[in-house]
Amino acid sequence: MRSFLDSCIAELDTALRVVATRAGTPARPVPAPAHPTPATDADPAPISDASIAEAARLMRVNHTGEIAAQALYRGQAFVARDAALRGRLLQAAEEERDHLVWCQIRVAELGDRTSRLSPLWYGGSFAIGALAGLAGDRISLGFLAETEKQVVEHLDGHLRRLPPGDARSRGIVAQMRQDEAAHQDSALQHGGGELPLPVRAVMRATARLMTSVSYWV
Fold first, then answer.
1. 199: exposed, middle or buried (Cβ count in 10 Å: 0-12, 13-18, 19+)
2. Chain-centre distance of CA 122, in angstroms?
3. Which of 25, 108, 166, 175 is buried most deeply by CB count within 10 Å?
4. CB of 62 within 8 A of CB of 176?
5. In whole angstroms, what is the distance from residue 192 CA to residue 98 CA?
6. Domains (ranges, CATH) in the chain?
7. Backbone dihedral angles phi then psi of residue 148, each to the nearest 5 degrees
C-alpha cells in the first residue's frame, strides 16, 4: 500500500508535469491527448490581428481553467474517504487532461503563451479542492457539480466572444462545454448536493479573479 509520503510525492510530480509543459517547446513538450483536438478538421478562416490576439487571451484563460480543474479534482481525490468517489474524481481529472492539452496547443498556434502564474493557480486550486473533500463526500460531489456549472456558463460566454472566423478555437470550446456539462450531470447523479449560496458566491468571485488576471498574465 502506498504511504502518505509516496502519495505526496506522486501529487507533486503530477503538479510539475501539469504546470511545466509548454506547447511548441521541445524541452517541455505537451503530452499527447487521449483524443484528438476537435479543431483538427475545422477549416481556418481569415481573421484580423486584433481578433487573433483576443482569441489567444481567451484560450489562455481556458487553459488556466483546465490547470485549476486538474488541481481541484486531484485535491478532492487526495482526501476522499470513499474509494469509488476517489476513482470518479481521478477519472474526471484524466478526462480534463485532454482539454488542457487542446488549449495549450491552440494558444501556441495563435502565437501566444499560457499564464505565467500556472503554479499559483494549481497550488491554490489543489488546496481548495482538498478543503472541499474534507467537508464530506456529498459536499465534494456538490462542489464538483457547481464547479462544472460555472465552467459551462464561462464557456458559453467565450463562445459569444470568440471571433466567428476562428473555427478552430470555437470547436475546442464547444467540445469542452459538452464534456463539462456531462461531468456536472454525473456528479449530481452520484449524490452531489447543492452548495450554500455564500459558498457559490465565493467560488464565482475566485473564478472571476483567476480569469481576469490570466487574461493578461
1. middle
2. 10
3. 166
4. yes
5. 24
6. 4-19+50-214 (1.20.1260.10)
7. -65, -35
Q: Cell digits for 81?
A: 474517504
Quote the pTM value.
0.88
The three state secondary structure string of 22-59 is: CCCCCCCCCCCCCCCCCCCCCCCCCCCHHHHHHHHHHH
What is the C-alpha separation between 69 and 59, in angstroms, rounded? 15
Q: Which three cell numbers stand for residue 172?
A: 475546442
Tens of pLDDT, residue by residue over 152-195, are 999 999 999 999 889 999 999 999 999 999 989 988 888 888 88
Cβ-proximal residues to 207 (8 Å cutoff; 6+ apart), any chain: 65, 150, 154
